[in-house]
Amino acid sequence: MNTQKISQFVRSKAFLVIVGCFAILALVPLFITDNFFLTLLTLIIIFSIYASSWNLLASSGQGSLGHAVFLGIGGFASAMIGGSIATALAALSGLDRLPIGVASVTLQVLVMILGGLISAGLGLLIGLACVRLKAWYLAMVTFGFSVIVESVSSQLDFLTHGIDGFAPATLVPKGYPFYILVTASAFASILIMYLIMNKFRLGLAFRAIHGNEAEAKMIGINTAKYKLIAFVISTFFAGMAGSLYVYFIRYVDNSIFAPANSFAPLIMAVIGGLGTVIGPIIGAGILISVQQLLALPSVSEGLHGALGGFFPGIADVGPPLSLIIIGVILVLIVIFMPKGVISLYDKFNSSGEREKKKAPEEKKK
Amino acid sequence: MDISTIILTLVWGVAIGCVYILLATGLNIIFGVMKLVNFAHGQLLMIGAYLTWTLTVTFGLNAYLAIVFTMPIVAVLGIAVERLTFRRILGTDKLNEIFISLGLIYIFENVALLIWGDRSKQIISPFNNMILDLSSISITYDRVVAVVVVVLALVAFGLLIKKTKIGLAMQATSQKDTAAQLMGVNIEKIYMITFALGAALAACAGGLYGIIFSFNYQIGAMPTIIGFAIIILGGLGSIKGAIVGGLLYGIAEQLATLFLGGIWGSAVAFALLIVVLIVRPKGIFGVKGE
Questions:
Q1: How far does Cα A288 stand from its chain's mean position?
Q2: Which of A352, A360, B167, B289 is most buried, most CB within 10 Å of its CB?
Q3: Considering only CA atoms, which of A245, A281, A242 is closest in space to residue A25?
Q4: Do A189 and A237 contact (CB within 8 A), yes or no?
């Protein structure tokens, strides 16, 4: 991209939309100072990065069912490294613990990027094993890796402390300061992913591979190379999201590798709109909101009072109910709205001309 | 480590492998005939286990008889799933199958959690605590019976495929669906029957699983993945391959558990799977090329 293209992009509508969205997001908690709301927003934004990273991988035709590996590795690595550096720095300056300030905030950003890099390194290795695999073979192998990583991390407990879990050092105060860090990181990473997918030749190659790998190869695209690049970029951002997640919930243990965390970004991207930039963000919003709202004590108690009598075997009907809702939404979206919630916007916004361009999906009989 | 421990481990591996073979066979015919991957197949196993448990506890049925009643119930559930979801996305992007399956996994697991609660359950069979003693090794009757049941189910299944008209139509559809349609096969009906059969086999596997192990609403995921591992190990579409793959997997898992400890069982088995896939992306007995 040369300077002319950059200035063109900076003036484009898409850029303004992204900047506008994040500017609003950054300011909203100043007006609505509710703790639950802030937690909800922070989680949504962290998972937006995570879902977007999955979405980028899917845009190259690769569907991973083991992305929690990268979320977890990023989280574990940055929590461990951040903790030891903070202790070392504090010891150097003769203090008990690192005071919160410029140094700690810089450290937070550094370990976040480091977590991404370590995750991307692992992504490179796993990607090398996966570039030859297609569709559900790939899904299987990535899922297999998540099972293996979970076992290995509990075996290496002396190193990871993953069975009991541990809390990372506090580097950025919780609440609004941490929220700003999350929003800024999400803005940067989602913008970069948008550029890669839509403005760089890289994204073009991804789409060609997604469309038809054999044809892409025929017109001279080194498919293995580009698939690997997609894997590395995607795992970098997944690791970064993992770092933010761990520092936000202030706790990390082996359960971060659980299948639910591998499925979440997929569900978010599909609900919102696969292959779009805004889609995964909308999906993250819907999924996290449903989960968090039904887990609210007041809602949960109300539900349990109303329905608990029918289901005596369980202490709290809220969480399973929210997962059933998510499952139903996912199935309905895939069947009736294969382009995700975002396609509603296109429908309202477009004239008949754009509708005509979209060939209706052929149904095999 | 004495030799009888290793023999016992191998026998256990075979018994567990048999349950997985049953699940894998169901997955395999669904894939073979419909070219469809149902990642929620293990959840049908889980439902099968719960229904068998309910029948034994509520109606006091013999556990093995309960499995026979459970199979048609889960088959009907399978038909409903096929008609309402997978039928609608056949022929669209392959990833859609994975998405639908994930949605189904969330729905099945949490409905089961609501209905049956979060405590683990185990099906009490009439052979509970009875042990077959062969001088140096002893093995529970239930595992022997499980192997027998699986062999019977597979023989019945094989006869259905090879000797009946429906089986013939299924084979034709798996080779080329459009050609089969031109020959007068109602492929929508065949899809329905195939899915029902696969679901019934999963229910049978579920009943056996529930007799051998204790289970909860989350047990479905691992067997599905193991089922796929077996199919991949053995090569897609090949029932013999699935049997070899299942036995290999069961034995590998048990040996890894014996020598390295319980937590390594599935990790080693998956490592085996990944190595096989990287060396031969289409499985050991799979055909090369698309």
A1: 12
A2: B167
A3: A281
A4: yes
Q: Are residues A217 and A335 in the same domain?
A: no
Contact B200, A238 (CB under 8 A): no
Give the ipTM. Answer: 0.86
| Exposure string for A244-258, b = 16+ CB within 10 A, e = fewer | bbbbbbeebbbebbe
A273/A325 same-domain check? yes
In whole angstroms, give the CA distance from residue A331 to residue A314: 25
Return d(Cα A347, Cα A123) in angstroms, integer.
37
Model-level pTM?
0.85
How many angstroms separate the CA atoms of A130 and A123, rounded?
10
* pLDDT tens-place string over residues B241-264: 788 888 888 888 888 877 777 667
Bridge partners of B137, per DSSP, are B134
Residues A168 and A235 in one domain: yes
d(CA B112, CA B48): 11
CB contact under 8 A, A363 and B114: no
Q: What angle do CA A348, A351, A357 make, to 5 degrees?
A: 110
d(CA A227, CA A262): 20
Structure confidence by residue, pLDDT tens digits, A169-182:
888 888 888 888 99
Residue A346 forms part of a structural domain: no
B-facing residues of A in 23-62 (CB < 8 A) are: 58
Structural domain harbouring A330: 258-293+317-340
Helical axes B141-163 vs B165-175, angle rounded to 10°: 80
Contacts of A315 in chain B (CB under 8 A): 118
Express each pLDDT in A289-307 by its tens digit.
988 888 888 887 787 777 7
In a domain, A18, yes or no: no
Q: What angle do CA B247, B252, B257 make, to 5 degrees?
A: 130
Inter-chain touch A338–B115, beta carbons under 8 Å: no
Q: Which CATH number covers residue B16? A: 1.10.3470
